[in-house]
Amino acid sequence: RQTSSADSRARGSDVASNDPLLRKNASMPSDMSDVASQCSVHSARRARSWCFDEKVLIQSLYKVMISVAESDPIILYIRDVDHFLHRSQRTYTMFQKMLAKLSGQVLILGSRLHNSDAEYNGMEDRVSSLFPYHVDIKPPQEEIHLNGWKTQMEEDARKIQIQDNRNHIVEVLSANDLDCDDLSSICQADTMVLSNYIEEIIVSAVSYHLVHTKDPEYKNGKLLLSSKSLSHGLSIFQETGLGGKDTLKLEANEDGLKGAPGSKKPESDKSPGKDGDAPPPKPEIPDNEFEKRIRPEVIPPSELGVTFDDIGALADIKESLQELVMLPLRRPDLFKGGGLLKPCRGILLFGPPGTGKTMLAKAIANDAGASFINVSMSTITSKWFGEDEKNVRALFSLAAKVAPTIIFVDEVDSMLGQRARCGEHEAMRKIKNEFMSHWDGILSKSGERILVLAATNRPFDLDEAIIRRFERRIMVGLPTQDSRELILRTVLSKEKVDKDIEYKELATMTEGYSGSDLKNLCVTAAYRPVRELLKKERLKEMERRK
């Protein structure tokens, strides 16, 4: 077990009080509480990378220890001393000379992990020669003590992970001219995230902070984020990655965005010229042959006919889409600074069939006021050799003309599946390569307001390069009981229904139903009175004939 500076306080006094009795490689309890209570303990934590000069480091350590030792005893604790001394021969030599010069009330403790399977390289003996007294800390043999030891190990690992994530957050903030007012106030549960997602978390935090802060504060030229904004970014990750519910609601509606700080007028609303006339619009580039073929697939937002109000439940997913899609499309001025704050270029909706993925895509395009291009294999493929790639090129050039644009690919696995499939035609691989190049590759342009939104119920069939380009992957699962009740109320809101209908009972009876299944259930029920009416009319007709 690796010990920390706090652990040294729990050690006994055997080491300090019985120095003459100690022998090299002796095994004993490492109890130093008496010494620690009288000394100031300094912990030299392990760094991710060494970005300083060894001579400056060791000289500084020596000066600090000599200065403190003049008035108080001092303990210097070096975690993973092997990593420190293995850096170079120069480091080992200077550290050895520093030990020879030290005197007075100074104690240096070092720790290392012993791996019996590691190859012998001779360096362990050299390190051992610098530390004449060795204390072996082994797992306890008794079952009751072993269980407690394992519990403590898990707790220590959790604390180390939390601190490592916080350090990573600080590094990313500093690298992008950002700062946090109170990073320590973020609860420990929030910081238990994967380091690979910290950049995305900070992007969400910056978006939330700019929308909800009237006058953003800057400190030493850095944007000062609130701990609340950072906690919101963490909760967004937990919602999309861990399935939790978001407790911080993002007010990303039109009125809220217009009142956000730093808002600018769109480029089209420029001031009039000297004569009071508006500046002439830029001449439109006519569509080429391939763009004309795709033009019928462009659907204006006014013709989509689906809003978020038409979708029952999925509140947490709708809020995530509003932040990821609507904010960059409506407020592109907030994303011009570069760095981490960039518009999302790809979102993947995956889940069982009939859960509302296509409706979500139409609703987000309608509410964001973006053009909607529904892409399928028939849109791209052609019987003529070489025209498939030209159609892909025309797709993105046309999307740039009608921007902001959402390119929607339903059942994306059938179009952009794995390139290693056996028997796949070479033309399909060319289509995928061309699509990726224009989407997020050499041929893509950072200023284009184009979002690729895809849906699939077979995400594992997608190519790895395609999955990588989907910066956000949101699962749209089967609705819960409360969600099923809300979906039924939404579907039947415009119908004439019995006032005594029990929505909660219906939701309980429809366990495992998707949103599409619930709608089909309502459609089937709607045909019931029609059949009864036709039956009554036939009976009346038969009686009249008699």
Automatic annotation (TrEMBL):
Composition-biased stretches (Basic and acidic residues): 264-277
Residues covered by the AAA+ ATPase domain: 343-480
Organism's domain of life?
Answer: Eukaryota
Per UniProt, what is one Pfam family of this protein?
A: AAA
Q: Which PROSITE patterns match?
A: AAA
Keyword Mitochondrion part of the UniProt annotation: yes
Q: Where in the cell is it found?
A: Mitochondrion outer membrane
Q: Which UniProt keywords apply?
A: ATP-binding, Membrane, Mitochondrion, Mitochondrion outer membrane, Nucleotide-binding
**Could you identify this protein by its name?**
AAA+ ATPase domain-containing protein
* Organism the protein comes from: Aegilops tauschii subsp. strangulata (Goatgrass)
